[in-house]
Design goal:
Largest sheet: 2 strands, antiparallel
Number of strands: 4
Helix content: 55-70%
Strand order of the largest sheet: 1-2
Order of helices and strands: EEHHHHHEHHHHHHHEHHH
Structural class: mainly alpha
Radius of gyration: 34 Å
Length: about 425
C-alpha cells in the first residue's frame, strides 16, 4: 500500500520536514542523513523507522540530522528565482494537442456518464420526438398526400367559374399538407435546437475544468461531444421519418424514405451546430439561452420561403436566408413531394412557382445544408478555443500561482 503513493511528505512533532520524496527513497534517505547502516531502535523497516522519528521533536539529535539533510536537498528561494522562466504579458494557457485517441477516451467517458446518469433525460427527449410524430398522425390524415396540385392553364382557367366540390376538397388537402410539412420539419428542428443548446451549455463547465488541468484539447472535446450527440439521434430520425412518411406509398415517385432520412439528418446536424454556438456563449444563463435560441429560430422561419416569398424581401434578407437551415430543409421536402416530373409539361405546380424553385434546386439545397453545417461547426470550435485561452482565465491562473508561490516562500522555506 505504501508504494501506491507517488510522493510522501513527513513532518516531525514540531512541524519540520524530515522526509519529502518517493517511498522507494526512504531507506537511502535515512542512511545518508544519519550516516549509519542500521538503527539501534527496535523497528526494522524504513517506514517504521521514519514514523518513529516523526513522533519526536528536533531536540532529538537524529531528528535534527534528518531536518538538516532535507533542507540541503530542498531548493532555496534564490535558486528557485534563478530557475524561473519569466513570461512576457499574461501566462500562456495549457495547450494540449488534438488526437483521435483522446477523443475516443472522452467519448468512452461520456458514454459511461450517460449510461449512469443521463439516460433518463435522453429517453425523455426521445419520447418527445417520437411522441410528437405520432401526435401529428392524429391531426392530419394521410389523404393530404394524394393531390398533386398541378394546374393546367387551359382547362383550369376555363373552369374558374365552375369549381366543383372535388376541386375544393383538393385545395383543402393541399393546404393541410403544406401545414403538415411545416410542423413535421420545423417543430422537430426547434426541439433539437433547445435540447442541444441546454445540454451542451451545461457541459462547458466540465470542459473548462478539464482543459485548465491540461488534459483535454478543444478539438478533442468538441469531436467527442459532437459524435455523442448525433449517435442517439440516428435511431430517432429513422423512427420519426417512418412515422411521418405518408408520401412513399401514395406518391407517383418511388419511396422517398431515404431522402427524408438524409434531410432530417442534415438539418439535425445543422441545428446542433447552431445550438453549440449558443451553448458556448450563454452556457451559464439558461433562460437567456432559451430566449436567444427561440428568437434566432423564429428569424430562420421568417426567412424559410414558406410564410413569405423570398422574392418579395429586401436583398439583405435574401442574403441572410442563405444561412437558414429551415429554408433549405423545407424547400427540399416540397421538391420531393411536388417536383421531379409530378406535373406534365402543360401543367405547373403552384407551390414551386410561388417559392421560385425547380428540380435543380434540390442539389443546391443539399449543398447549402452541408455548407451551413461546416460553418456552424467551425464557428463553434473557434469559440471554444477562444474561451479556453481567454484573458480572464490566464489572470485567474496567475493569481493562483502567485498565491502558491508566496505561501511556499513564507511557510516552507523559511526554516
Amino acid at each position: 500500500m505504501l508504494y501506491s503513493f507517488d510522493q510522501l511528505f513527513v513532518l516531525s512533532n514540531t512541524g519540520h520536514c524530515v522526509f519529502s520524496g518517493p517511498p522507494t527513497s526512504i531507506s537511502e534517505h535515512l542512511s545518508l542523513a544519519l550516516k549509519i547502516e542500521s538503527s539501534p531502535l527496535r523497528v526494522s523497516t524504513p517506514i517504521e523507522r521514519l514514523i518513529e522519528y516523526s513522533c519526536k521533536s528536533t531536540e532529538d539529535m537524529l531528528v535534527t540530522k534528518l531536518v538538516e539533510y532535507q533542507q540541503r536537498k530542498t531548493i532555496s528561494v534564490e535558486e528557485l528565482i534563478e530557475r524561473r522562466c519569466l513570461v512576457l504579458g499574461e501566462l500562456l494557457p495549457n495547450r494540449v494537442r488534438f488526437s483521435l485517441r483522446s477523443s475516443l477516451v472522452l467519448f468512452s467517458r461520456y458514454l459511461v456518464y450517460v449510461l449512469s446518469y443521463r439516460w433518463i433525460e435522453i429517453l425523455a427527449f426521445n419520447f418527445i420526438y417520437i411522441g410528437y410524430g405520432v401526435a401529428l398522425q392524429f391531426f392530419f390524415d394521410a389523404t393530404i398526400a394524394l393531390p398533386s396540385g398541378c394546374l393546367n392553364m387551359e382547362a383550369d382557367f376555363n373552369n374558374t367559374c365552375s369549381r366543383t366540390v372535388q376541386m375544393a376538397i383538393e385545395e383543402r388537402l393541399l393546404e393541410n399538407n403544406f401545414k403538415y410539412n411545416i410542423f413535421t420539419n420545423n417543430i422537430f428542428q426547434f426541439i433539437v435546437l433547445i435540447h442541444t443548446s441546454i445540454t451542451f451549455g451545461q457541459e462547458m463547465a466540465y470542459f473548462a475544468s478539464e482543459h485548465q488541468n491540461g488534459t483535454v484539447s478543444s478539438g478533442s472535446f468538441y469531436l467527442s461531444k459532437s459524435i455523442s450527440e448525433i449517435l442517439p439521434m440516428i435511431p430517432v430520425i429513422f423512427l420519426y421519418v417512418a412515422i411521418i412518411d405518408i408520401y412513399s406509398n401514395s406518391s407517383h415517385h418511388n419511396s422517398i424514405y431515404w431522402h427524408l432520412v438524409l434531410l432530417f439528418t442534415l438539418s439535425t446536424l445543422g441545428f446542433q451546430g447552431l445550438a453549440h454556438i449558443f451553448g458556448i456563449l450563454l452556457n451559464d444563463q439558461t433562460l437567456l439561452l432559451m430566449i436567444s435560441s427561440s428568437g434566432v429560430f423564429v428569424f430562420q422561419i421568417m426567412l424559410g420561403n414558406f410564410f413569405i416569398s423570398l422574392q418579395r424581401l429586401h436583398y439583405v434578407y435574401r442574403f441572410l436566408a442563405n444561412g437558414s437551415m429551415a429554408r433549405y430543409s423545407f424547400e427540399s421536402l416540397i421538391l420531393l413531394q411536388y417536383g421531379f416530373g409530378r406535373c406534365t409539361e402543360r401543367e405547373i405546380q403552384p407551390f414551386l412557382y410561388l417559392m421560385q424553385i425547380n428540380d435543380d434546386h434540390y442539389q443546391r439545397c443539399l449543398l447549402m445544408m452541408v455548407i451551413n453545417i461546416v460553418v456552424t461547426r467551425v464557428v463553434a470550435i473557434w469559440l471554444i478555443t477562444q474561451r479556453s485561452k481567454s484573458k480572464e482565465g490566464n489572470k485567474q491562473r496567475k493569481r493562483v500561482l502567485d498565491f502558491s508561490q508566496n505561501s511556499f516562500e513564507t511557510n516552507w522555506l523559511k526554516f
